[in-house]
Amino acid sequence: TGAAKLVVVIAIFLLTFYVISQVFEIKMDANLGHIFARSALDAAARSTKPPRYKCGISKACPEKHFAFKMSSGAANVVGPKICVEDNVLMSGVKNNVGRGINVALVNGKTGELLDTKFFDMWAGDVAPLIEFLKSIQDGTIVLMATYDDGATKLNEEARKLIAELGSTSITNLGFRDNWVFCGGKGIKTKSPFEQHIKNNKDTNKYEGWPEVVEMEGCIPQKQD
């Protein structure tokens, strides 16, 4: 009788152990399945997230090109912004922009920043701008953006020097127009990188100023 009871106890113990092990295994499988499912969802989310390109432009530039993105100022409140190869060259945050025409010079071979300047074309003098434009070396990429007013003090000589960099809109740039331009010293053709919005009280987004103008693109690297 005692042996029979022992057998029954052992059988119950083994059965209980088996059931518990099965339940534990099922839970482990469920947890692993949940982990794998979440990993798959995370991977899918990462794969569907759009890639980010330099300066936040919409598509990658080909080899031997420099990515750039720029915007004019917003009225007389927010300054312009110029970015090349994911480096912000000029912006209100960097505190190196000002009323008038903002200019960034970039090495056409390396994409490295050479200089930044802004010239007040409302209350300033055009002579420093002319002198600066004449000093630019061949092969230099020139990026320009207006802020507030970039045209009042421009004269024929200054406009001609900017036109020689590849601009076509500079001859028509007027009071409080918004304008962004990317050209180069020694360029043989007109630049394809230029945007211009006229100051027009009937279409202005801001009182007294047109909307911000933005532009992005890929600048060919200067070859020897």
The low-pLDDT segments are none
The ordered string of helix (H) and strand (E) elements is HEEEEEHEHEEE
Summarize the main sheet.
5 strands, antiparallel
Percent strand equals 25-35%
The structural class is alpha+beta
Total helical segments: 3
Number of strands: 9
**Overall mean confidence score, pLDDT:** 87
Q: From the alpha-carbon coordinates, what is the Rg to the nearest angstrom?
A: 32 Å
What's the arrangement of strands in the largest beta sheet? 5-4-6-7-8
Shape: elongated
Distance between the termini: 104 Å
Percent helix range: 25-40%
Structure description:
By secondary structure, the protein is α+β, with helices and mostly antiparallel strands. Helix content is about 30%, strand content about 25%. The protein is built from 3 helices and 9 strands, in the order H-E-E-E-E-E-H-E-H-E-E-E. It has helices at about 1-50, 125-135, 155-165; strands spanning about 65-70, 80-85, 85-90, 100-105, 115-120, 140-145, 180-185, 195, 215-220. Strands 5-4-6-7-8 form a 5-stranded antiparallel sheet, with no helix packed on it. Strand 7 (about 180-185) and strand 8 (about 195) form a beta hairpin. It holds the Pfam family ILEI.
